[in-house]
Amino acid sequence: MITDVCKSFDWGIPVGLSYEYKNISLDARYYFGLTKIDKTENPDNAQNRYLSITLGYRFHL
Predict the structure, then answer these.
(1) Strand 49-57 to strand 24-33: parallel, antiparallel, or no bridges (unpaired)?
(2) Are 47 and 30 in contact (CB under 8 A)?
(3) By three-state DSSP, how is residue 17 classified?
(4) Torsion sign over Cα 32, 48, 51, 13
(5) Which residues of 27-39 are buried (b: 16+ CB within 10 A; e: fewer)?
């Protein structure tokens, strides 16, 4: 199982930008993992890192 080789908790720093124009919003974030997530005998420098991009439209109710 994946829980046998990876830790279940991770610390990290999210950095992002957001822009809104009229009813449209754009958001981009990058996550820098600070914790090594590999818990095997010879751990590599495995850390969580990902990019998230969101495009949205706001409806007025």
Answers:
(1) antiparallel
(2) no
(3) strand
(4) negative
(5) eeeebeeeeebee
Which candidate, 45, 26, 27, 49, places its Cα nearest to that of 36?
45
Counted residue by residue, the chain has a size of 61
pLDDT of amino acid 43: 63
Q: Which residues contact 43 (CB under 8 A, 6 or more apart)?
A: 36
Tokens in use for 8? 């279940």
The β-bridge partners of 38 are: 6
Q: pLDDT tens digits for 23-41?
A: 999 999 999 988 887 777 6
Asked whether the beta carbons of 35 and 2 are under 8 A apart, the reply is: no
pTM of the model: 0.67
